[in-house]
Amino acid sequence: MFHGIARGELKAAREVGKAVGAREHRFVRLPDLKEAGDLGLRFAGLPATYIPMRNAVFYSFAASIAEETGASYIVGGHNKDDLRVFRDVGPTFFESLEATIRAGSDTLRQRRLKILRPLASRTKPEVIRLAASLGVPFRSTWSCHQDGIRHCWKCEGCLSRVRSFAEAGVTDPLSVSRTGEFSRRKA
Ligand SMILES: [Zn+2]
């Protein structure tokens, strides 16, 4: 969401960055990049949260940081379900983007910069099962599209999270604590 700073998402990103021992965790601001819904636009077959040419912008920024910091890889977390909806997470887009980035920078061409998408062949439930096997701290993950400090459990991001955990057969610690909150309130 671009109505303001996504506080819950930023907090989750910081916690995950810490958990994986990131050497440097950089946050960039792109305030003029808006979701279609916020612009009052709808594109056929795409959700209101769609951002026109989102990944061309994000990955160009990442390539700039890669050139600056000496990185040889840019890693994206797109999954197979994303590919069904968004054109800019597909292999054609990334192959040509990788070629474009190498064409635009002698440094990145010599370094043979690669864009890696390790989750591209997995559905969301498969990603959750893999994450559970790797001990990913689910409590520090974020799925909500709203700008809150807790998941709203009503938006498409939250509903998709609930569906995917259920399908994966994995308990979501965030969802469990939510149930706890409700039952305490009723008692
Ligand atoms: Zn939500």
Structure in words:
The structure is a single chain. The protein is mainly α. Helix content is 49%, strand content 3%. It has 8 helices and 2 strands; from the N terminus they run ααβαααβααα. The protein has helices at 7-19, 54-69, 80-85, 91-104, 106-110, 124-134, 156-168, 173-186, and strands at residues 73-75, 114-116. It has a two-stranded parallel ribbon. The longest helix has 16 residues, at 54-69. Bound molecules: zinc ion. The site of zinc ion (ZN) has 9 residues, from helix 7.
Please indicate the percent range of residues in DSSP E strands (runs of 2 or more): under 5%
Q: What shape does the CA trace take?
A: globular
- Identify low-pLDDT runs: 181-187
Distance between the termini: 34 Å
Number of separate helices: 8
SSE pattern, N- to C-terminal? HHEHHHEHHH
Number of strands: 2
- The assigned structural class equals mainly alpha
Strand line-up of the largest beta sheet: 1-2
Round the mean pLDDT to the nearest integer and report it: 90
What bound compounds does this protein have?
A: zinc ion
* Helical coverage, percent range: 40-55%
Largest sheet: 2 strands, parallel
Radius of gyration: 18 Å
Short structural description:
The chain has 8 helices and 2 strands. With 187 residues, it is mainly α. The structure holds zinc ion (ZN).
